[in-house]
Amino acid sequence: MAKETFPGTVPAADPRAAKAADELQSRAPQAPQKLPDSTGLRLLAVHAHPDDEASKGAAMMAAYADAGAEIMVATATGGERGDLLNPAADTAQCHRDMTGLRRTEMKNAAETLGVSHAWLGFVDSGLPQGDPMPPLPFGSFGTLELEQAAAPLVRLIRAFKPHVVTGYDESGGYPHPDHIMSHRITVEAYHAAGDPQKYPECGQPWAPQKLYYDRAFNPGRLRALHEALVEAGIESPYEERLLRFEQGDRPDWLTTHEVTTKVPVGDFFEKRDAALRAHRTQVDPEGFFFATPNDFLREVWPYDDYVLVDSAVHTELPEDDLFAGLRD
Ligand SMILES: [Zn+2]
């Protein structure tokens, strides 16, 4: 995961950011926002590798689990090609059985978030590097035919019966072949699961009712963090990146979906952090994901962000609830 680079970073554990959080806290105390009771509602989040669920939407899942919803994470691959990314986690087992270790880490992360978890059973494609790019490993997730890759997810949707499915956008959120394939199977399974003509060997039809893409890193969030830093008299690390964004200078894989849905998750950032730390071999506790103090985030952007891409129920945009339109 540390290989993934995102738009917008805050310098690691910058004490000035903590000071800004304190200043903002004293200036504009904000009542905690809660989700409505979500008993009886179900959400399935589709991810590519063990640890992706902790870096994208973890606070959202913990918040809905706390509100009574049933949450399931589906992880497409075992993360077999992940390297040890946290020097402090170097043990003999890392070298002997990284895959087994990551299964244990995933179990711990799911328990931390209060969610169920299923493996879709595919093999990590790795991130090909070089010029020319080498082919993906034979049989890996990114090389499969769509129907073959989507079948286990269709089966899971029909068994778990989610009302809402979340996944990555067309770019994968990050152009890793497994993330792009995760996008493709999410869309395929979301539409096919309710159709009795499709995947007849994968159980009784169930049609989920809303599909969202993750927008964890979006220009609105960057701008809010940037302006809060500037207001607090602190040099913003976002300035150059924001300018480039706003002048249309962006990587060509980056999509431009607007956020439609901001879920209040401010009380659950510590659970997200704990889920990240559960992926001990993959997440450096001094790294990017812990760089922005939670009190600062709670003040400036206490949301996980999504774009609604399909809905079978009536809902009004913008939303602050992924289950909007599904409650009685
Ligand atoms: Zn990943």
From TrEMBL:
One of its GO terms (molecular function) is hydrolase activity, acting on carbon-nitrogen (but not peptide) bonds, in linear amides. It catalyses: mycothiol S-conjugate + H2O = an N-acetyl-L-cysteine-S-conjugate + 1D-myo-inositol 2-amino-2-deoxy-alpha-D-glucopyranoside. It holds the Pfam family PIG-L. Residues 1-36 are annotated as: Disordered. It is an enzyme of class 3 (hydrolase). Residues 16-25 have a biased composition (Basic and acidic residues). Zn(2+) binds at residues 49, 52, 179. InterPro entries: GlcNAc_PI_deacetylase-related, LmbE-like_dom_sf, Mca. Binds 1 zinc ion per subunit. GO terms for biological process: mycothiol metabolic process; mycothiol-dependent detoxification. Keywords: Hydrolase, Metal-binding, Zinc. Coiled coil: none annotated. Its EC number is 3.5.1.115. Its cofactor is Zn(2+). HAMAP family: Mca. Belongs to the MshB deacetylase family. Mca subfamily. A mycothiol (MSH, N-acetylcysteinyl-glucosaminyl-inositol) S-conjugate amidase, it recycles conjugated MSH to the N-acetyl cysteine conjugate (AcCys S-conjugate, a mercapturic acid) and the MSH precursor. Involved in MSH-dependent detoxification of a number of alkylating agents and antibiotics. Monomer. NCBIfam families: mycothiol_Mca (TIGR03446). This is Mycothiol S-conjugate amidase.
